[in-house]
């Protein structure tokens, strides 16, 4: 962690997995919190952005404080001596998960994730894959054993979302919770709606 007088600094990686909007929304929410963001956008991520959204790579870069090429292994975030407060990969492809789990640092995104783990900083991986076979699950376990938080972007329905946008925002806000960066507009569970309705539900089930 860095001295309190500095704003938080988070590395955001966006891979080619489906769900590039999660990474875009993460950059937007982190900007609202005053967080300095360092973006690594892979070539596959740029293709996914074009396929799934109206966003461009330039739009993503505009939402980041600093952007690094995935090929720039000499970037500041490739070194543990460069202080950051954590890293989020949103979305995280199985290919990237495999590279992180095996410390196969062939690009800057994976190297930055490896640095995050070795420096004992929080690393959150929003893995986008389903269904999962045993190989995927073993990779998830390897990454978790190294210290990563595996957080597939599973939508929450207790918030009664009225749009995909709301679902994406809530999911990303929960990922920021895992980085100890709670967003003030995140919808929080506050218990069942009323004690009477809860009693009625228990009576019906009984």
CATH superfamily label: Flavin prenyltransferase-like
What is the total domain count? 1
- Give the name of the CATH architecture: 3-Layer(aba) Sandwich
In round numbers, the mean pLDDT is: 91
Lateral strand order in the biggest sheet: 3-2-1-4-5-6
Continuous helix count: 8
Task: Give the distance, in angstroms, between the N- and C-terminal Cα atoms.
Answer: 50 Å
Series of H and E elements: EHEHHEEHHEHEHH
Question: What is the helix fraction of residues, given as a range?
Answer: 40-55%
CATH third-tier fold name = Rossmann fold
Estimated radius of gyration: 18 Å
Number of strands: 6
Structure notes:
This protein is α/β, with parallel strands linked by helices and 206 residues long. It has a single domain (9-205), classed as Flavin prenyltransferase-like (Rossmann fold, 3-Layer(aba) Sandwich). The chain is 42% helix and 14% strand. The chain has helices spanning 20-32, 43-52, 57-62, 94-101, 108-118, 134-146, 164-178, 195-205; strands spanning 9-14, 36-41, 66-68, 86-92, 123-127, 149-150. α6 links the parallel β5 (123-127) and β6. Keywords: Flavoprotein, FMN, Prenyltransferase, Transferase. Its EC number is 2.5.1.129. FMN binds at residues 16-18, 42, 93-96, 128. Residues 9-178 form the Flavoprotein domain.
């Amino acid at each position: 962690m860095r001295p309190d007088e500095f704003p938080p600094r988070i590395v955001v990686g966006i891979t080619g997995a489906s769900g590039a909007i999660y990474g875009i929304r993460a950059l937007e929410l982190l900007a609202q919190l005053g967080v300095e963001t360092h973006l690594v956008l892979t070539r596959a991520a740029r293709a996914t952005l074009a396929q799934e959204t109206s966003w461009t790579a330039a739009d993503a870069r505009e939402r980041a404080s600093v952007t690094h090429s995935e090929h720039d292994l000499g970037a500041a975030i490739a070194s543990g001596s460069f202080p950051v407060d954590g890293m989020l990969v949103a979305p995280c492809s199985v290919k990237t998960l495999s590279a992180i789990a095996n410390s196969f640092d062939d690009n800057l995104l994976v190297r930055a994730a490896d640095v995050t783990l070795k420096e004992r900083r929080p690393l959150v991986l929003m893995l986008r894959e389903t269904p999962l076979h045993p190989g995927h699950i073993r990779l998830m376990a390897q990454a978790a054993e190294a210290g990563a938080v595996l957080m597939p972007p599973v939508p929450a329905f207790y918030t009664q979302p009225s749009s995909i946008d709301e679902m994406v925002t809530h999911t990303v806000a929960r990922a920021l919770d895992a980085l100890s960066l709670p967003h003030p507009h995140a919808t929080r569970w506050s218990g069942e709606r009323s004690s009477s309705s809860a009693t009625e539900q228990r009576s019906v089930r009984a």
